[in-house]
Amino acid sequence: MGETVVQTNDEGAMRAVKDCVAGSVGGIAQVFAGQPFDTVKVRLQAQPDLYSGTMDAVRKTIRNDGFSGFYKGTTTPLIGVGLCVSIQFLVVEHMKRTFGQMNNTPKGQSPVLSAPQLYMAGAAAGVANSVVSGPVEHIRVRLQVQTAGASAQYKGPLDCIRQIYGSAGIGGIYKGQVPTIIREFNGYGMYFLAYEALVQREVAKTGMARSELSSGLVCLYGAAAGFAMWLTSYPIDV
Questions:
Q1: Model-level pTM?
Q2: Angle at 221 (CA atoms; ends 208, 33), nearest 5 degrees
């Protein structure tokens, strides 16, 4: 049985705004927490000849750039995270409604999607999200791999954008977009499939509403979904 949900249009709109704001705040926290790890990962991926391993990359980053070197390229994802979260939320909710109608879900009930439908809902959100995340990732990576000092090619994100656009136009900004779309398609498909499957199983087992699930359980399911996302998408990211 689906979970019964009765909402007015105003309540639904307010919930959507709250979800987008909460997602944006969470995204900002994620950027600050994850940026040092991402910087080391990118340097190992893009400059394997310079580093013998993870700890060597950490040591050389501190020696050449200081601790601030771990946060190179942070500005662009911080600016883009709110828009990315909004795109993901709106597309996923649209896909859930669409699939719910296809499944003939009774009015007033939250749609229960099949595994392929869950995957496609997340994948659609990932593709839409890539319009923003592609350029954001591109600029961030260029800033992450350069070392500080007079040899640095870019003074910051705006200077990086100006130089790329000046030499290659909008196509340069979107360079590498095809693998980004593939990564986002599979990554968000797997994330949403894993997360929603776990939540739906818990709701069906306990009879609780989604809003009644504990924060700890929601965080655990989110972490599990993150593992599912990156275990299947990391080769594409490389």
A1: 0.79
A2: 135
